[in-house]
Amino acid sequence: MNWLRLENNNQLTEIIKNSFDTSIKGVLLFKHSTRCSISSMALSRLERNWNFNTTEFPAYYLDLLNYRTISNSIADTFKVEHASPQLLIIKNGECIYNASHSEISVSDVEKLFNS
User: Fold this and answer.
1) Burial class of residue 29 (count of CB atoms within 10 Å of its CB; 0-12, 13-18, 19+)
2) What tens digit of pLDDT does each residue of 97-110 get?
3) CATH at 76
4) pLDDT score at 1
């Protein structure tokens, strides 16, 4: 995966704006705790199984330990409870997929867009 680093709150405005682009399926946000083995396992599984390209799905990676305030902004903006690891899909300014830990499923994301 070609990750875009999410490192400032201004990028959230850009993510919301981009989520309205009809040429993409959505914007992916992955919140990762670099000290957590479960988070590392979820990241590895996501990267191994992800079948979308970056033109279909811009993918943002948030290092939760260094940017916790951005994680809090994500929770507030998209009305989701904070978790780590956590995968969110943003489309038309809304969170349309939210999963954490072992519930993160590429096949569920594929079903969401192939149904």
Assistant:
1) buried
2) 999 999 999 999 99
3) 3.40.30.10
4) 82
